[in-house]
Amino acid sequence: MGLPLGRQIVVVRLAGGGLWVHSPVPMTPALRGELAALGAVRHVVGPNLWHDECLREFQAEQPAALFHAAPGLAAQRPDVRFGAELSDVPHPDWTGRLEQHLVRGMPRMNEVVFFHPDSRSLILADLAFNFGPDGPGWFALMMRAYGAWNRFGPTRLEKALMRDKPAVRASLDRILEWDFDRVIVGHGRNVETGGRQTFREAFAFLRV
Q1: Is the pTM of this model over 0.85?
Q2: CA atoms 39, 59, 110, 132: torsion sign
Q3: Residue 196: helix, strand or coil by DSSP?
Q4: In the chain, where does DSSP find H-type helix?
Q5: pLDDT of residue 138
Q6: Angstrom distance (rounded) from CA 71 to CA 107
Q7: CA angle at residue 110 from 106 to 113, to 5 degrees?
Q8: 208 in a structural domain
């Protein structure tokens, strides 16, 4: 909608040397070169029902990669050739390298979050954001209205999408079992340290 949300792509090198790509961004010559320098793209993940706008373009660039869809995404995007659906069970190619969990209770998002144990990093798409303190004044005002400025956490929109709060709470408890310190967000600034406690505090409203 023209908002300066930014977007992060996450790339993990798998044990076999291939690359795992989370949430593709628009392809540029610089990105194309960086990926080629890292290795061959083997897997591409569409982690929820929202992060889908660059998948078709990325597939044209990486036709040999296996594309993985969050539940419901394949039906939403028939123009993308998905070969697998994400669940709580990692694909054999990244078993032991990444862990994952489908967040329950938010069927209009169906986000699958990932954990990279080697770097102690939690990888999110839209479950939480971390905007501020810099940015256009109008954007700051808008994000404050959504409860998402200069703080890590879900916006009012994500909270409204929590149709089954006990199920969401159970999923968050599962995520908090992982020993992560860093949180990589799809939009905004990463939480570089103390991420597990920050994550816990951001969703403390579900305990009320």
Answers
A1: yes
A2: positive
A3: helix
A4: 29-38, 55-61, 73-76, 137-145, 156-160, 165-175, 195-202
A5: 76
A6: 9
A7: 110
A8: no
